[in-house]
Amino acid sequence: MHVLITGANGFVGQSLANHILSQGCVGESKVSRLTLLDRQFDEAVDSSSLDLVVEQHSGDLADDQWLKDTLGRFPMDVIYHLASIPGGMAEKNDQLGRSVNIDATMTLLEICKAQTESIGHKPVLVFASSIAVLGIMPDLVNDDTPLKPQMSYGAHKVVGEVVINDFSRRGWVDGRSLRLPGVLARPPAETGQLSAFLSDIIRELSQGHTFVCPMSAQAKTWASSLPNIIENLIHGAAVEESKLKATRTFTLPTLCFSMAEMVDAIGLVYKQNTKELVSYEPNPMIENLFGCFPSLETPSADEVGFKHDGDLNKLVERALLK
């Protein structure tokens, strides 16, 4: 099996690549070749002791000719399309956001179409969408909730979901769009993620440091641990196409909790007096984007085997696992 990961040097991409390298398979299928794409890589993968071929390619995903040349050499079985320009960065640079989030996705789909038509081998494409597609939400979110994205990033992800569904309908790709919630805990870095504070609060409070939370104690959000997201990405590629039925787009099961509940869980898991360490200074924009999340039902995702962390203590405990 040949597996491709775009955005392979990112937070989720690195973890997914490391999981595949350590397990040597996706589901029950053995991986023989792993191709990693990103603008640059922090370090090279030493595959000399591995029973699979690993290639890292640095380049601009918005360069469609580079993408076609790089991916046209070997047929692909599974594609994880994780590369994106996230929320804050896409708002600041509209052209960059569209070129990566929309144009590169279309080029990747055209490559899949060309492969299917030339050799009759339809690749599985797992697209990392986002709960940002939901935007303004009602009191209960379920599979029938209308999409009302409030940022360009969310709008771009809606476009990706729609075209992946259409290419799948036409038999050119076996697509699965997974709407990822907040993923915890991201390393401390400038990534353009407006929700980075959700990772920072776990890291800082777990070490006994004070933290100023930009949302109120009662603000509610959704999130999953990185290990849980990796499990769902692997399952997303492994689930049989026949089980997808009427939809190829899934809002992943995740936990809904208040900031006060998260602070309590961090204190319990890491034995810290977190109530004294945290203070709340709500930022209206941040709270509007990330602190007004309602209850969530995900029957379609539940039916095909996607899962959340189980409980908030487990999420907090797993969030800092290496």
UniProtKB/TrEMBL annotation:
This is NAD-dependent epimerase/dehydratase family protein. Keywords: Carbohydrate metabolism, NADP. It holds the Pfam family Epimerase. Residues 3-211 form the NAD-dependent epimerase/dehydratase domain.
